[in-house]
Amino acid sequence: MSQHDEMEIEAEPGPTGKHAPDELLTVGEMSRRTGVAPSALRFYEDLGLIASHRTGGNQRRYPRHMLRRVSLISVAKRLGIPLSDVQTAFENVPLDTTPSHEDWQAASRRWKRQLELRRLGIEQLERELTGCIGCGCLSMKACRLLNPDDELGEHGAGPQRL
Amino acid sequence: MSQHDEMEIEAEPGPTGKHAPDELLTVGEMSRRTGVAPSALRFYEDLGLIASHRTGGNQRRYPRHMLRRVSLISVAKRLGIPLSDVQTAFENVPLDTTPSHEDWQAASRRWKRQLELRRLGIEQLERELTGCIGCGCLSMKACRLLNPDDELGEHGAGPQRL
DNA sequence: GTAAAACCTCAAGTACCCTTGAAGTCAAAA
DNA sequence: TTTTGACTTCAAGGGTACTTGAGGTTTTAC
Hints:
Two copies of one chain form a homodimer.
Chain A: E1 24-25, H1 27-34, H2 38-47, E2 53-54, E3 60-63, H3 66-78, H4 83-89, H5 101-135
Antiparallel strand pairs in A: 1-3, 2-3
The structure holds a DNA duplex.
């Protein structure tokens, strides 16, 4: 497993118009490209969010398609979405093979629904806060912000606590 | 400190059961009204996010206006906004006196700007994800999701719609 | 007056999401 | 070949946001 015919790492399709699906990235390369620390990548791997092959010397080598997973994870992190939700969104995206167009399409749609829920919660609060600014909203009972069970908690049965 | 030699603070609603304007709430009442656990309230107090008076027996009594602070804190929590950001938003809202209309207006505006930033980040990601769904987005360089440094910082450039 | 419920402090524990450090191994450049 | 940097595992530590429990006190209700 020490055969390293590793070519220059290329993001774009080669001259034939095809990707090189066998191209592998080290943990450091993954880190540089995604901005996610190597320790975090190992942590994600322990959780099963990502996966890697190993060289004969036991070092990680990531297939290119793992970049996409890691990037989506880091986006989730920046938005405060817990890793468990990410795991859900990735449910049917294969770890061991390069996901197909359809795999990612389905995951993207799930992902987008997550974001939409979150955005709707924020928009509602913004609207209510605008009301508070306008009216002073010193009456506790009138302010939806202060009785939040009504609105975020009842947008469907899906995962709240976004 | 073994007897109730305290007279300065009235803890409960008067004998009429009406809400006096300067009515004070126990930690349990605050908890029931806000849905925030007593332990969390004590924690917020340790952080300086809220404040209380003490009875002669050293029990907490919260002025009514503290309900508003606690509720806003719990809203922030549900949206994944860290307490440090809440602290910033509360910067000029007095802890010791009932905040004025203007105090809350100013805080509401700051709060709303926070929410807006968050929402813009999410919206941008939603747009990009829509692109990914449509095109498959298998080209790494074309996908903004995969080069996230650009996007959250970019909403100053003005909104663009699809 | 007494008993139960609610409160107090302080320390430790939990859960998530990692980071840091120690001690050693692997891979690629000089 | 040697050296250097990147990598490995495992254990412990850190920040955030609390919860739980022990042991004791205060307040309320009867």
